[in-house]
Amino acid sequence: MLVRQEHDNGVVTYQSPLLMDLSVPHAFSTRIGGISKGPYASLNLGELAKDNATDANTAVAENYRRLREALGLTRHARSVVRQMHTGEVHVPPAEPVRPQDCPVADALVTEHPGLLLAVRVADCVPVLLAERSGRRVAAVHAGWRGVVAGVAPNAVGVMRERFGVLPGDLVAAIGPCISLRHFEVGPEVADQFRGADLAEVIDEKSFAKPHVDLQRSVRLQLRRAGVAEAAIDGTDRCTFEHAEEFFSHRRDQGVTGRLAAVIAVQG
User: Fold this and answer.
1) How far apart are the first and last CA of the chain?
2) Please, which pLDDT band fits residue 261 given cuts at 50, 70 and 90?
3) 3-state secondary structure of 229
């Protein structure tokens, strides 16, 4: 189970005991500890060109600086992708490019020291992966479309194909996302989960309309990809329900900040 960390500079994150045991630098951010105002208060980590936010670029940059400072990663260069709810996985070069020049993808994999992989979420599922040696890591953004597209198991596959990492040698951490209780979907979305062999994550009995358990979906996909159940950390935190800690696109009707999940190769 993820644990809450209050850092010396005021930033609050959640971290995985399994990844901490590997000495892999990582974190799932909260909204606490930044300088942004209004609906973006306070640790907004969104990419403005993508998220159409009105928060100042300088505030977002300072928020990322504070997050890196909290993790002791001030020298690391942030590597991102243009997230479009796909199943695509990107292996970035050693030297990161500008965000506007990044490819469309929803997961990143690296073995380069000095890179800080980052994905942004505000209800979607953030997933961090690390080889037990700590030498290869991945960050995954999985909204419901990304889950259906298999972005998390795709990342596992790329780690195996590109770097020879066996799924059984992976540790995974699933970060805070919208919970089953608050993720109501239409019948057409439920049908897509059935088509992805995920019918068991749909609850059509407890609510008037179908609800989907996104965290369980990703956990199930990771297990099917070969990651051991005991090697998967999770959380009971809900981005929709726990407004004091998290941004939520659904709760805030789109006018909100972004959380980040970040990971780097073992130092």
Assistant:
1) 24
2) very high
3) helix
SS3 189: helix
**What would the two tokens of residue 42 be?**
């306070």
Query: pLDDT tens digits for 187-208?
Result: 999 999 999 999 999 999 999 9
- Give mean pLDDT, residues 233-243: 98
- List, in sequence order, the alpha helices (H) in the chain: 17-21, 48-51, 57-71, 144-149, 151-163, 187-195, 214-224
**Cα–Cα–Cα angle for 67, 72, 76, rounded to 5 degrees:** 80
262, containing H or E segment: strand 259-263
Please tell me the distance from the alpha carbon of residue 261 to that of residue 155, in angstroms, as a whole number: 15
Give residue 193's identity as a one-letter amino acid code. Answer: F
Per-residue pLDDT tens digits for 42-100: 999 997 454 444 577 889 999 999 999 999 999 999 999 999 999 999 999 988 787 77
Task: Tell me the C-alpha distance between 77 and 91, whole Å.
Answer: 15
d(CA 20, CA 127): 15
CB 5 within 8 A of CB 15: yes
- Residue for token pair 């019948």: 187
**Where do the structural domains in the chain lie, given as residue ranges?**
3-263
pLDDT of amino acid 258? 97
Q: What span, in angstroms and rounded, lies between the C-alpha atoms of 171 and 135?
A: 12
Second-level CATH architecture of 3-263: 4-Layer Sandwich (3.60)
Report the alpha-carbon distance of residue 82 to residue 201 in Å, rounded. 28
pLDDT at 50: 46
Counting every residue, how long is the chain? Answer: 267
Residue 150: count of CB within 10 angstroms of its CB? 17
Beta bridge pairs of residue 142: 125
CA distance 40 to 190: 31
